Amino acid sequence: MSLKTTEAATRADARLAPTPAPRDYRAARTLSGLRKNTPGLIVLVILGVLIVLPLALVLLAAFSDSVPRPGSISLGGLTLSNLALLATPEALGALVNSLMVGAGSAIVALLIGAFLAFVCARSDAPLRKFIFFIGMAPMFIPALVGALAWSLLCSPSAGYINIFLRDLGIDAAINIYSLPGLVFVLGIFYAPYAFLLLHSSLSMMNADLEEAATVHGAPLRTMLRTVTLPLALPAILGSAVLVFALTMENFPVAQVIGNPAGVDTLPTYIYRLMSATPAKSNQAASVAVILTVALMAVTLIQQRIINKRKFTTMTGKGNRPRQVPLRKMRWPFTILALAYFAVSVVLPMLALLAASMQATPFVSSMSQLLEANSLSFAKLIEVLGSNDFQLALKNSVLVALIAAFAGTTLSFIASYIRYRTKSKVGRLIELVAMTPLAVPAIVMGIGLLWTWLLLPLPIYGTLAILAVACVAVFMPQGYRGVSASMLQMDQDLEDSAVMLGAGRTRSVLDVTLPLMRVGIMSSFLLFLMLSMRELSASIFLFTSNTRILSILVFDNFDNGQSQAAAAVSVLYCLVIGILAVIAQKVGGERKTKN
Amino acid sequence: MKISIQNLQLKYGSFTAIENLNLDIEDGEALVLLGQSGCGKTSTMRCIAGLEEPTSGRIIIDDVVVFDSEKGINLPPNKRNVGMVFQSYAVWPHMTVAQNVAYSLKQKKLSKSEIDERVMEALTLVGLEPYADRGASLLSGGQMQRVALARSLVMRPSVLMLDEPLSNLDARLRDRLRVELREIQLQLGLTCVYVTHDQHEAFALADRIALLQGGRIVQMGAPQHMYEAPASASIAHFLGVSNIMDCTPEGTATGSTTARITNSELTVQSAQQASDAGTSPKVCIRAEDLQITAMPTEHPNSWPGTVRVAGFQGNDIRYAIQLESGPELDALGGLRRGEQHKVGDRVWVTVNPREVQILPAEVLA
């Protein structure tokens, strides 16, 4: 180093040295290291309170003889006695039922989803665009509402279908309140998940791979068997396991359909233990731990399969995969798809409408519904004007908006720390953010209840705790959406703003946020939609003043007021439908932008 | 402006990306960091920019210490007044061309009239003034490159850094922009740092090339010097020397060297002294220095062989020639400068001993 540079350097040091004390460099470094990780640590603490603490409390309660509450949280009452409950026939029965329900609905959903995906993506059946809509549509009906509708259709005594069968002189009542009924309802309402995964796999498949098979002499049938099917296999398995996981932890459908039949699954069993007087919270916690462990195992398997999926060669190129000519089966296939639409959307909606509009609570023959004055909008209008409904609507929208805003913001900051900084806590943040994927919502609900009774922040009994629950439960979906969009954006775009003299925050505001706005908006709407439907966690967190729409439907049904429940459901679906249309508009904008 | 990098080191965990790098770049100089991917060239650039924090060392730009690990100085990138053109250009698609270029001036809170004036000046320099109000997402690759360049030039940076500036362009555009870049750099007297893996790009743009291998500068010098005297066989290989063979050199009385090629009966005469060869020496001969004739020549290095492959390349023909003494050589025969040979022809390959280099496999650390 020349003398000149040394001189210059010293001069520069004097000009810029940030540390006044000459020998304090090491301390300055440690401090700057800490400062670098501060935002990450703050996010980690927030996620920890949202997600880890509730789980820890459930785990603690499972091995304790008291419920965690302020002042009484101790490790003194540790016991294994709650585990004795797990060996009772009730608990074992619930476990077996849960597994059977999961497996059964996965098969039903996979059959329906695979059929629709094939017809829609790879066949020449008519009305394919509409079939795509059919495949997605049931997603917009909350599972709770679907279950309610099917209990209106097929309850053994008063179900519309059973009344109709009786009108026809057929004396074989279909009883939806049974294990097969439960599997059926879950299967049809979770089929869209299988459909969407398989549809994307089938339509994005590289056509060259199939064409290579034909060039090398395989007839259509052989090509489908030896190339198409193996390539779609990860998606098939992945979606089956996903549906298994979702249905196994499902609470509302199991409660509505299973409860009258005396069929307990783990989630309904937990709910029953929690709502017993006095509440058997510790036992509930130990069942919750079992359910969580089971779900974690299933989720791990599912992630394995989905990650393997990368070997499916997908290209963004425009050559469309080959269509399979159905010939004589074109219309029959479309009609079959329409039949699914009838079962999953049309019949349930009609049943809800009929139930909310019928003048008398009891119907003995379908012809009764066709008589003059038998149907009226009176009940719907009454519900629409009622305080209960208006408050619940206001609460739902408010909770969903707060959750969407807070959830998206948190997801953005978490993704930014994970993917845009060298912060050491990034990976840990991601792990925590993705954890609720493997935790049943009902377990999160119990944990959140105990957490917020314990914490000094008094949000229990307010809408805020419901919003907090939605953020915690749907964090994985939000985080994944935002981080996917962030990964798609070249880091150079933001760095170049910094190189041109803008500070980091300024650059994020000027460049990163505007460029990610579509991805951020989608995540916002996803949070909004999911929060509007949430029931399983909220069920432990609402108070009489903070009921949301899903709770209102559930309460009405639980109290035997099925007409009110139906009326609220109709309006509930309407609200969700409006949100879906808005989401569609935003999605459409994205397409034109690209 | 002058840049000085002292004892720079960058580690990712146990992996060392940059190892004790020392480099001084003079005012107005165009320096090219040349090397294969993963050699540390982009990391070095990002350290200068401040986008990467070195593990240790010191960086001084224009007499300002921007990084010093010992004193805990680490100036953020936006305070360094360094311009950077990213490989991906990073032109913001949600702004117009003019908005892109004006960005740095807005950060400096200049008056609107001054911003407009300087933006137009920069756009004129890169020939994009008619496109000022066009959305940046509607531009072609070459135009994006110019916007990125104008955006960095407008801030009057102490040093302009360009990461693989031409790699995303098609061949014709690349040739034109290479000349334009050099012209702008000389016209403005800019201190420039380029990063590239392409030797031709490096030769055309550089006043001086720093060749990096494994996070170290293994050779530094003017382009012509580097072309003529690579410091090792692996550098020669990187710079496009295609005939590289293991050998055992022996000195002769006249100060030249006779090299016996390993696993063959071939011996090669070199004008170079044997003692320069270092450990595990290799004979290096450029394809274009080989002459192919149908008849033997009088030169010491004239070997018989057979044409195995002849590939027409436009200006010349590329031959693969199997020597009778064992090795296969890669040779370029000019279409205009002489005979053409067909596959299977028996030919003589000749090389002047002055064009034969005997180099160590690697530069020692």
Number of domains of chain B: 2
Strand content of chain B: 25-35%
Overall mean pLDDT of chain B: 89
CATH class of the largest domain in chain A: Mainly Alpha
Number of DSSP E strands of chain B: 21
Shape of chain A: globular
Helix content of chain B: 10-25%
Quaternary organisation of the protein chains:
heterodimer
- The CATH architecture category of the largest domain in chain B equals 3-Layer(aba) Sandwich
What string, H for helix and E for strand, traces the elements of chain B in order?
EEEHEEEEHHHEHEHEEHHEEEEEEEEEE
Instruction: Supply Rg of chain A.
Output: 28 Å
The CATH superfamily of the largest domain in chain B is identified as P-loop containing nucleotide triphosphate hydrolases
Compute the separation of the termini of chain B in Å. 30 Å
- Based on the coordinates given, report the CATH architecture of the largest domain in chain A: Orthogonal Bundle
- Give the structural class of chain A: mainly alpha
The CATH topology name of the largest domain in chain A reads: MetI-like fold
Q: Roughly what is the average pLDDT of chain A, rounded to an integer?
A: 85
Could you give a short account of the major beta sheet of chain B? Answer: 6 strands, mixed
